[in-house]
Amino acid sequence: MTEQIALEVKDLHVAYGDKQVVQDVSLKFPARQITAMIGASGSGKSTVLRSLNRMNDELATVTGMINFHGFNINQPDVNVYRVRQQIGMVFQQPTPFPLSIYENVIYGLRLAGERDRQVLDQRVEESLRQAALWDEVKDQLKESALALSGGQQQRLCIARTLAVRPEIILMDEPTSALDPVSTSQIEDTLVQLKEQFTIIMVTHNMQQASRSADWTAFMHQGRLVEFGPTSQIFMNPQEEQTADYLSGKFG
Ligand SMILES: Nc1ncnc2c1ncn2[C@@H]1O[C@H](COP(=O)(O)OP(=O)(O)OP(=O)(O)O)[C@@H](O)[C@H]1O
Which Pfam families match (predicted)? Predict the structure, then answer.
């Protein structure tokens, strides 16, 4: 692979108590590209994803290297808050706070101590534009985020993640709670976002992976079976398990 690498996982193992659920996963995520993680329910996709910005710290034992700019962020003395600023997360269910649209977007910036109104205003507009929501909400920034539709709420959550200017955005089934129109809007947004951000997305939706992702990783029973360009994984998988999964033999 000649791509620039945003994040490299090496020999990742994850256990919940005694239960080993991810084994020996090594993977390089290309920069400013979309990588989809696919596989049957329980194959460990979300567990890998959550490990990438230390979201599993309280729940699981995660061993292995997660290299970000030549630095292993899976070490005890790493500033986890800083890691999560640089590697943001968008969840399956939209999770707006019961605050205005404006306050939702700048939530992370406020936590980081930003007080300059001009900076905040500018970041709200920038992030909402990047999340393709600005035109729909620019006249109602002071209104409650809870009044938005599900699809708008999810784009707001994307804007909230973007506002702290991460390099990488992790997405755990970001459209599974949404209708087809909202799903398609988010997919369009992702394609715009990859010009600036690296996106790693867990999805159950095979069409979504094949439409949106440049790279696809297939996981089965806690192991990475195959990783490659999306077209190759879907059209010409190298592993029998991948072919069986894609043809609906299991999962
Ligand atoms: N907090 C937890 N405590 C204990 N076991 C867990 C926890 N979270 C996940 N697991 C187990 O770890 C395994 C992998 O789960 P994970 O959610 O990573 O898989 P997945 O491929 O993302 O599945 P899905 O597509 O259903 O979300 C499963 O056996 C699951 O039951």
Answer: ABC_tran
The rounded distance, in Å, linking the Cα atoms of 153 and 130 is: 14
Q: From the CA of 11, how far away is ligand 1's center (Å)?
A: 19
170 forms beta bridges with: 89, 200
Atom index in ligand 1 nearest the CA of residue 204 equals 25
ipTM for the predicted complex: 0.93
CATH label of the domain that carries residue 209: 3.40.50.300
Q: Is residue 75 one of the residues assigned to a domain? A: yes
Q: Select from 13, 20, 46, 203 the residue to mutate for testing ligand 1; criterion: most ligand atoms less than 8 Å from CB.
A: 46
What total number of domains does the chain contain? 1
Token pair of 131 as six digits:
């999340």
Per-residue b or e along 44-54, where b marks 16 or more CB atoms closer than 10 Å to that residue's CB = bbbbbbbbbbb
| Residue of minimum CA distance from atom 7 in ligand 1 | 16
pLDDT in tens, 39-93: 999 999 999 999 999 999 889 999 999 999 999 999 999 999 999 999 999 999 9
Question: How far does the centroid of ligand 1 lie from the alpha carbon of residue 14, in Å?
Answer: 11
Q: Taking the CA atoms of the chain, what radius of gyration do you get in angstroms?
A: 18
Q: Is the residue at 46 inside a domain?
A: yes
- Give the distance (Å) from ligand 1 centre to CA of residue 112: 31
Residue ranges making up the domain that contains 32: 5-96+167-246
Residue with CA closest to ligand 1 atom 4: 16
Question: If we measure between CA atoms, which residue out of 144, 103, 145 comes closest to residue 120?
Answer: 103
Tokens of 226: 């195959």
Residue 47 CB less than 6 A away from ligand 1? yes
Please tell me if the CB atom of residue 45 comes closer than 6 angstroms to any atom of ligand 1: yes
